[in-house]
Amino acid sequence: MQTTGNSTVRVLIASLAGTTIEFFDFYIYATAAVLVFPKLFFPSSDPASALLQSFATFALAFFARPVGAILFGHFGDRIGRKATLVASLMTMGPSTVAIGLLPTYHSIGVAAPILLAIFRFGQGLGLGGEWGGAVLLATENAPPGKKTWYGMFPQLGAPLGFILSSGTFLGLSGFLSEEDFLTYGWRIPFIASALLIGIGLYVRLKLTETPVFLEVANHHQQVALPMRTIFAQHGRPLLLGTLIALALFVLFYLMTVFTLSWGTTALHYPKGDFLHAQLIGILFFALGIPLSAQLADRFGRSPVLLWVSVAIFLFGLAFGHLFKAGHWGNTVIFLSLGLFLMGGTYGPMGTTLAELFPPPVRYTGASLSFTLAGILGASLAPYIATFLAKQWGLDFVGYYLCAATTLTFVALWAARSLMREPS
What is the extent of the structural domain holding 154? Predict the structure, then answer.
């Protein structure tokens, strides 16, 4: 395999920095979708309907992600990982800044939610190309036996981005009154993300191409239409990869968006208290990522992911008993446990999905699997969970998680022969 001028530190910082920025942008929208947008971008006559409409715009980005995966995956497999990663960052970043500058429903009426949806689509488009490229940047520069460890660095961008976004909203809530926060405070993190975009570009523009792609290019192994090749020759890995990531998305968006909404409304937790509890839980999410990656490099990705899936299933059975009104400390334990399990499945996930596909179509295949799982597992998760909780109680939210985890377990079992292990 050819070598490049990329140092280990540069590769890992570039893969981590980019996904941190992307997830920061994505999470500030998720938080605002619960706390801000129902009040400012939709008719206020029916708060419940406004919340559901806000969740609908939240879901829109997940339907944009496969478009981004196909678009950026095409160029990532055709012309290289580096240029495509820069382009994905420049797609999502300006969309986020634009959301922070939008006038509200009170100012321009129905045009406000329409523009919000358009820029939300832009966020999803960029993230659809970002994740796969960041994972390949790390794994295709990894030494033998360290592929999952390298592949977990982009995954760490998720908890870091969440910590930055939640910490920003907590800080603003502490310094600003509710009126000032709704008037202009919520806009600050969206607009300030422009600074993070500049940092991400600086790091990525200094990279050289990955050795794996250079080998593909030197042997003229690029395919004309990677997406067509994926569907024609790699349909089974695509289906299995999508289902492998399904429980991951359901669990994460239940533990973040749904719990924030339900906890601050039905369970009457103060917004600040619940955000603090989530931040503690995210620390356990961050802890679970390197731990599971290290275990996966030692024992194999398939065994680790199978055992974590069993643990998530058991957590789903206890969901309704653990998440209820009462002592704040119990809620912290609930969130910490769920998000630690999320880290357990998320750490090896990037490397697992990438290794299901050969290098000439790896960017497209891994990105498309991940984003299709996002549609099935995350786009409607807050909506479905809210409906189930209102109709039949929180136990059924847990059963929803159990159903998704069962599909993931079956897919992991079926995909064992496709996983390129050991690293």
Answer: 8-414
pLDDT for the residue 1:
44
For the chain, which ranges sit under pLDDT 70? Answer: 1-6, 45-46, 325-326, 420-423
**Structurally, how many domains does the chain consist of?**
1
Contact 50, 42 (CB under 8 A): yes
What tokens appear for 382 in the block?
């807050």
pLDDT of residue 420: 64
The pLDDT value given to residue 334: 92
In a domain, 263, yes or no: yes
CATH code for position 206 = 1.20.1250.20
